[in-house]
Amino acid sequence: MSMDALARLREWIEPILQNKYSRVGFFIILFIVALAIGAPVIAPKHYAEVDPQNRLQPPSLQHLFGTDELGRDVFSRVVYGARIALWVGMLVVFIEAAIGVTLGVLAGYYGGKVDKVISAVTDMVWAFPPLVLALGVVTLIGPGLVNVVTAVAIVSWPTFTRIVRAKVQSLVNREFVLAARAIGESDLNIMLRYLLPNVIPTIIVIAALSIPSAILSTTALSFLGFGAQPPTPDWGAMVSNGMPQLPRAPWVSSFPGIFIVITCLGFNLLGDGLRDILDPKLKV
Amino acid sequence: MTVEGLRKYFPVKKGFFKKPDWIRAVDDVTFQVFKGETLGIVGESGSGKTTLAKLILRLIDPTTGKIYFDGTDIVGVSKKELRKYRRRMGIVFQDPSASLNPRMSIEETLRRPLIVHGIKDREEVRRRVLDILQKVGLGKEHMKKYPHQLSGGQQQRVAIARAIILNPDLVVLDEPTSSLDVSIQAQILNLLVKLQHDLNLTYIFISHDLLTVRYVSDRIAVMYLGKLVEIAEADELFYNAKHPYTATLLSAAPIPNPEVRYVKRFSLVRGEPPSPINPPPGCRFHPRCPYAISRCRTKEPVLKDVGGGHYVACHRAEELDLSEYTSGLWKIITESRVS
User: Thinking of the domain A15-278, which architecture would CATH place it in?
Assistant: First the structure.
């Protein structure tokens, strides 16, 4: 990494570390990311390794988080699960942003009929309880992690559209946009070169704040059995698997549950901090 | 360039079932701009100056009216056709910090007009950007900067550079100095005058500051509530204003000369300008005009030639003697010119 890029990275991270909450969030996310990247090294066993001799063992030095009904090491599964949670969270948000930002910029820039149609569709999607709608989509396209990701993204892009639309509306009559039109810039160029770059800080904040709900929705669908299929160590599926043994072996469900909470909390804290830095007036 | 019967009405919605009201921001404005001259447009806030600027640049669509640019009416032309005319017109806005894209470097800001209009050769683009930066008093060191790293005066220089980089015929300057410090104002004004001279530009200079307008303009047009009330050569307008509203503006202008201890001030006009939603019938100025007669309340005056290219929209233009209102300011101008 060049010195310049390093300096710019510091410029980004320093304000995050200065705020108490976003600092906590930052380190939580760093921790989860480290787990995800270092999973093969950190996890003592492979996530699918079955050991029928040691079923439902309580937490011990050998099995930090105990073992599940097939004797798999819960700690190892939780560590590998971080990969899935992060991957799923970011993929969902990426798809959401792609749909939401495109529609938001179009609605905000053109206004009029385009805006009316896009806003109507947005409101319709917005009106459904997201999980119920996602369930519907998953039943339609079938179970599986990728389908769950698609389903969650399809139902939760309206946040992006609404905020980006409002932001673009506030920019579109600014003088630099008028000046761009005066020099003959095309509509597409005005959107890509003048409007979008000015909305990117906002998009980053919404993205960070959307990851928790994306993770929650996908884990909820996995919990219900629609998402990751065994033996994939998805946290939601793990909570679900541990349910029958909850009175005898609470650790099987609890530990993945705790990690879901910690990860979501981390992204929320980080997102709030980013908002204070990048776009203090934003309301999400 | 000729503007003919230009109107822009903005709808104000009152309710779902009610008919909208219309703000008559620009109402039947007709004037000409000659090549190489500077036409000043003055008027108080809300008189439609900025709307007029946006109309001329075709940034908003007029309600009715024609804008002839080099003989072609650019109101009716297609988007593609309009692009060709965009190349020949530039605009500079009031607030330079709002008129530059905060996420675009100065170099990119100045490259865009060239690239949009098909100048793609990298060497040539670079040369022209450097050249224009020099012309507006900036340099190579500003190219990689972003607007927030420049001062207000420097930002306005960039905005001017963007407006003139394509060698336009007409540049509309919408209060280009009002948001700047007084010392910077003078620099920018001098720069504008120099550029006009060097590049043979035609200016439409919009401002509420009479003395500034006078400094740069060959002719001056006065707007009131969306209407053009008077247009004349700069000196003629200052010395021999025929419209009571112009006289009011002149007598109200601050005189920047501490030597002048006593200037007769006339409170010719009381109150605020009426709402442009329901302008008064007849002459729009009549409720505030001390010289109003019954005809002013019913019949709307049109621009009339009173000799020497001096047009006034006032029924009593010929009979009124307004020299006492204007002479004070005139004296100051002539005297301060000598000293």
Answer: Orthogonal Bundle (1.10)
